Fold:
Amino acid sequence: MERKNKLEVVSTNKSRYILPSLLTLIGVCLGISSIKFAMDGNFSYAVLFLVVAAILDGLDGRVARLIKGTSDFGKELDSLTDFVSFGIAPAFVIYFWELNKLGKIGWLIVLFFSVCCVLRLARFNLTRFDHNEQWKINFFEGIPSPAGGCLILFPLMFELSNFSSLINLKIITPYLTVLVSFLLISKVPTFSFKKILIRRKMTIFLLLGVGLFFVSIIQFTFETLTICCLIYLTLIPVGIYNYKLQLKNANKFIDEEEHQDIL
Structure:
């Protein structure tokens, strides 16, 4: 009896590579869709789609490592989609919202942000660490592109929140976009949150915090997003201090090893 061939889209031993890439592709679809919402003047959905894209971007890599589905194809796909979702889409959203009022200067700022984002992604792809520098995995060189894309949307998030009655932040939009562009290509160390160790006793508090976060997102969406942006900005100087401290300890450890070898 002849054995019937089964129709397979991908071989069984490689099917685990699909899920991370699928999350990445969903993210880029959300990023492109946010541009459409911005063109229609629906900026609330434009911001929400980009935030969800940023969350998926943070999940795809972790899912790939968890199910052992990392691949060179996935890494390249992730970088290309990051440029679309966080290098182009947020810049267009902020342009349709406020920067278009500045004419050619506003468009120049959009181009500047996009160029800085692609340069940051290219540098990230070439970043390699020696065996004695593995602690640097916990840090990015400059802010990551998803964070940059969300930060330039901060004035828009503030405008959509109830905080807008306190002060008008539209005026800082071009200056913030330029500042974030420089932070993208800078060598300022920022937390990557790739390796976070949680004690078993603290798990219950972590789950409680995640639950409260999602409740606040549902009830006070843009207020919560605004506060998250502020928290991230305050974490930048903390990351710089922590990086310098760990670098000092690492150099001290290397000096001690060299001294022992000489003896």
Q: What stands out?
A: Confidence is low (pLDDT under 50) at residues 7-12. The CA atoms of residues 253 and 259 lie 10 Å apart. The first strand starts at residue 139 and ends at 141.
